Automatic annotation (TrEMBL):
Superkingdom, taxonomy of origin: Eukaryota
Annotated protein name in UniProt: Dolichyl-diphosphooligosaccharide--protein glycosyltransferase 48 kDa subunit
Compartment(s) of residence: Endoplasmic reticulum membrane; Membrane
Residue stretches making up the OST48 middle domain: 287-425
Organism: Astrephomene gubernaculifera
A Gene Ontology BP annotation from the UniProt entry: protein N-linked glycosylation via asparagine
């Protein structure tokens, strides 16, 4: 009997773990190419994801059915795909993102218009079809001695460890298409840019003048986008950088023989894209008068109050206290009356003590925190502020003592003069 109970508990735990695992749909140019990206796919699976690998034309794919999404994340390694099987189209993928899910896509110089349009919807403008990134100074020579100036050894990774890990001494091998993002974009981050000596060019056309798109000057090789609903998208200009060949490559850059950082960078970026790193969770918003523990319905002008909130950083299935000095609190009524940084105790609790302004009305606590690589925090909480009641004012004000003295002196003088004229001839 006890053995059956233990078996039932084990089965229940297994079912709960299976339900808790995130599912990832990987669409390849051809289902037979799975072995080409096996290390990348296995790396995702090792992070406790349930991975489903399909060809992009597979008619049995069901991303959504009866209003329910079958997958949590989507990987598109099919740069030439003009359409998808199973009723998946661009609008379905955009709805997938709008519902809070994540997309990682990689293209190549032969990118299709469908993939270009999808990247554009994410705020990433890919260069013209057929163009490639060239670099005549920072190119890699493969182990068989072949030099390829389109095989760029890039080292300009964004310095955000939650996105790409690092730092790395090895370069990231890249071969593919460049992209640009708007300078005013608040949601996109250039994850990998090429050296300043790199440029983009279509080899089928003569290079009669300097290229108009200098990759090192303002384009992106890998772009990460985090939507306002915290959904994440990654657009890589080179699908080969996720392949086994680039993961295991031994190349020579200049006179230095080195391995590549592709494996670590791509897997770290995938974990970030699937919200396994860089996720902030805020909870336990509370406020009270100084010296009291109970949260009141409202405050009186000039009250001394304390505001607290707990913020943790989630890394996979574990959490740790978030430590930062740049989270600000605003006490707002139409416009902020107070804007001050929150202080943290290294245990994940952020707090601030302040005096309520001498203005009554409906105020709100407002935290709007955004930091590159981390999910956004948006918290609001309304609280009314009232004026003094008629019986709460001080009866005697220190600053009014001169006026009290003048009134008393006038009364004393009046009675003195009256007494003098009434009782003296």
């Amino acid at each position: 009997m006890a053995r059956l109970v233990y078996l039932g508990l084990a089965l229940l735990v297994a079912l709960q773990s299976a339900c808790a695992s995130k599912s990832v749909l990987v669409l390849l140019q051809n289902a037979n190419e799975a072995s080409k990206y096996s290390q990348f796919i296995d790396g995702i699976a090792a992070a406790e994801f349930v991975v489903d690998v399909r060809g992009y034309k597979d008619s049995s794919i069901k991303l959504r059915e009866y209003g329910t999404w079958h997958y949590d994340d989507l990987v598109l390694l099919a740069p030439k795909a003009e359409g998808f099987g199973g009723g998946i189209d661009q609008q379905t993928i955009l709805d997938f993102v709008d519902s809070g899910h994540n997309v990682l896509m990689a293209v190549s110089s032969d990118v299709s218009e469908a993939m270009r349009s999808l990247a554009s919807e994410f705020g990433v403008d890919l260069d013209d079809k057929g163009t490639k990134v060239y670099d005549h100074f920072n190119y890699a020579t493969t182990a068989d001695g072949k030099s390829d100036h389109t095989l760029v050894a890039a080292k300009d990774l964004v310095k955000i460890p939650v996105m790409v890990g690092g730092p790395y001494k090895e370069p990231v091998l890249f071969r593919g298409l460049a992209a640009t993002i708007s300078a005013s974009s608040e949601l996109a981050t250039v994850v990998l840019s090429a050296p300043a000596s790199a440029y983009s060019h279509d080899p089928r056309k003569p290079l009669l003048e300097p290229p108009s798109l200098l990759v090192g000057g303002g384009a992106s090789l890998i772009t990460a986008v985090q939507a306002r609903n915290n959904a994440r998208m990654v657009v890589a200009g080179g699908v080969e950088m996720f392949s086994n060949d680039f993961f295991d490559a031994q190349v020579t850059v200049g006179r230095t023989k080195t391995s590549t950082a592709n494996r670590a960078v791509c897997l770290s970026l995938a974990r970030w894209a699937f919200q396994e790193s860089g996720v902030l969770v805020a909870s336990g918003l509370r406020h009270h008068l100084l010296g009291q523990a109970e949260q009141p319905w409202g405050y009186r002008v000039n009250d001394e109050v304390e505001f607290l909130v707990d913020v943790v950083e989630r890394e996979g299935n574990s959490t740790r206290p978030y430590k930062s000095d740049d989270i600000q609190l605003e006490f707002t009524m139409l416009s902020p009356y107070i804007r001050l940084p929150l202080q943290h105790d290294n245990q994940g609790t952020f707090s601030l003590r302040f005096k309520v302004p001498d203005v009554y009305g409906v105020f709100k606590y407002d935290i709007d925190y955004s930091r590159r690589g981390y999910s956004y925090i948006k918290l609001t909480h309304q609280v009314p502020v009232r004026p003094f009641k008629h019986n709460e004012y001080e009866r005697f004000l220190t600053c009014a003592y001169p006026y009290y003295a003048s009134a008393l002196s006038m009364m004393a003088g009046f009675f003195g003069l009256g007494f003098f004229y009434l009782y003296h001839k």
